[in-house]
Amino acid sequence: MKKLTLIALLAIAFAFGACKQSKINEMSTDNPLLQEFTNEYGIPPFDKIKTEHFLPAFKAAMEEQNIVIQQIVENKDIPTFENTIEAYEFSGLKLSAVSSIFYNFLSANTNEEMQQIAQDLASLSTAHWADIQYNADLFAKVEMVYKSKKDLALNQEQEMLLDETYKSFVRAGVGLPKEQQDKLREINEELSKLTLQFDNNNLAEVNSYRLVVDNEADLAGLPDGLVSEAAELAKSEGMENKWEFTIHKPVLIPFLQYAENRELREKIFKAYINLGDNGNEYDNKEIISKIVNLRVEKAHILGYNNYAEYVLEENMAKTPEKVYEFLNSLFEKALPVAEKEAKDLQDMIIADGKDFQLEPWDWWYYTEKIRQTKYDLNEEELREYFQLDTVLKGMFNVAKKLYNIEIVRLDEAPIYLTEAVPHVVKDATTGEHIGVIYIDFYPRASKQSGAWMDNYVNQYIYEGKEQRPVITNVLNFTKPSGDKPSLLSLDEVSTLFHEFGHALHGLLTQCTYPSLSGTSVARDFVELPSQVMENWAMEPSVIKTFAKHYITGEVIPDELLEKIENSAKFNQGFASVEYLAASLLDMDYHSISEIQDNFNVTDFENNSMAKIHMPDNIVVRYRSTYFGHIFAGGYSAGYYSYIWAAVLDADAYAAFKETGDVFNQEKAKAFRENILEKGGTQDPMELYVQFRGQEPKIEPLLERRGLM
């Protein structure tokens, strides 16, 4: 039978469906979200989108998908891959576009109205997807195609789409009794609302805190740029001759590194680690308790002992036991290194003429002192060589040398904020369009903290026409201040390359189906493309191409590069312990197998840390009440993914280093074709082995971190 396209399916709709479609078409003439994105590069009309457009667009897009689903179900022909699986896959294109734009705006440029819409959508979206996932007639057709898989001449991507489509229904609970499905509907809706509230609370807490300094002597040790920025902030809020410091990371970290006033270091540090834990309207402890219990209940209904089992079934790790074994083995290696580092810091405190015991708010300060003493390396001095614009050009040049792509700023393109800068990505030889990336650099009150990559538009091929992706990188870097441009720390340089690695995964994808393209891969595989890019950021020969003094233009001296290289393993015990502790805390939450009455989040976290003998002078990287990765960001039972992928990325970069050329074209081609282009069309370990020729080894990671 001839393949029924989305347009054809809509054209043969019942009068009921046709009437509704007519209303949708009528609505689309006024709503830019429902119109075709006719920009040269398929960019959404950001300049025309208003907040009031979102809710009507969601409703219309959901109705459009419902019409297509109805037609799939009522099609009298024998179910085939084309008229069932492909038709279902493309049924939600418009809804996917609207959702991507809305939720990216919600994270990067939110307001109270957007947050209210998100709460309203929690019920609307949950009901919409539940109606689809529990549609027994639809699933019967999907199952018929799935059971005939061996008789179908499917390519690898088609077979993966069939498998994933079938599993999505099964894992949602399509085979459960109605009363259990109804319960899952309630749980999913409540979880959606709670995770949104968790994020909103964190944003409100971060935005509401200010450390106000009115005595200039208390600024001793702080970098001039940080002081100037604090003075500007205070002045903007009507305070002359005062300085205001926030707990955004570009402010918090240098404050902890350089502030000589220990009391102020303690104050700002505690403000950060107590986010969401202040007993006020933004307190997240009750929300966490509800989320944990709802996830346990959901896992039980779906036939799993705990939520971690449910999540990990779809990841490379497969089981909680394997994740625990992996994390604990690393923690056992990292803990003695961190303890040795703590002793060195305590010795530095004594050498500094002080007699107090090392506390968490001292770690950054005395680590910086040791870095300067032992390695003669000053991070503030390094910043002067990492001007954002220059690093950005250097990063784009790395991508060009690896993958032969050209990235150029787009002067004429729809924008949603002047801070979000669009760039077009093309093949450097042919000029063929690859995609568009928006990069949003600086903190603001309407933006969540952290850094991330996401899609505004997925890549796919539909009716013979390819939609190339529109990507966003969202960052929170040190702002320009006065006459001084944005100067990055080493960590911010790594973050820039990291998120750009995600972007390359989304940009270079060559898939047919949107649900498999780009970064649509297992959670513990998705960090490989991002983390491997960090290696080029720290490669001495590469750094020289973009590390130039922002005033003199002098290329970073060899002696500074040598200091960076010598200090590469410095403080890795601390970094590993605080990260691994957070990963184990995540696993502990999601390995709970029974509903918890009167669940005490603080006690649970303390017991989790005591179990691994967490040092008192190190705080877990994310305390529960602001651990957005696992309670709002999709990394539940998955925060371990960063270190899992670190094994992959260290091994992958070793493949380049072994050739003697970090831009080896054979390896770059293999990485592009087997990792970046393939999306989720194959098993991730199969993809990795196709690139590397073998499964990854852990030794390169241990060597890199000094944990051998």
How would you describe this structure to a colleague?
Helix content is 56%, strand content 6%. It is an alpha+beta fold and 708 residues long. Among the domains are: 6-133 and 135-172, Neurolysin, domain 3 (Orthogonal Bundle); 209-273, no CATH class; 388-566 and 641-705, Neurolysin, domain 3 (Orthogonal Bundle), CATH 1.10.1370. The strands form three sheets. Strands 3-4-5-9-6 form a five-stranded mixed beta sheet. The chain has a two-stranded antiparallel ribbon with strand order 1-2. A two-stranded antiparallel ribbon has the order 7-8. The longest helix is centred in the middle third of the chain and has 32 residues, at 320-351. Residues 1-23 have low confidence and may be disordered.
Secondary-structure class: alpha+beta
Mean pLDDT: 94
- CATH architecture term of the domain at 388-566 and 641-705: Orthogonal Bundle
In spatial order, strands of the major sheet run 3-4-5-9-6
Oligomeric grouping of the chains: single chain
CATH topology of the domain at 388-566 and 641-705: Neurolysin, domain 3
Task: Indicate the CATH class of the domain at 388-566 and 641-705.
Answer: Mainly Alpha
For the biggest sheet, the summary is: 5 strands, mixed
Percent strand equals 5-15%
From the alpha carbons, calculate the radius of gyration and give it in angstroms: 26 Å
Global geometry: globular
Helical segment count: 29
Beta strands, count: 9
How much helical structure, as a percent, in the residues? 55-70%
Low-pLDDT regions: 1-23
N- and C-termini, Cα separation: 61 Å
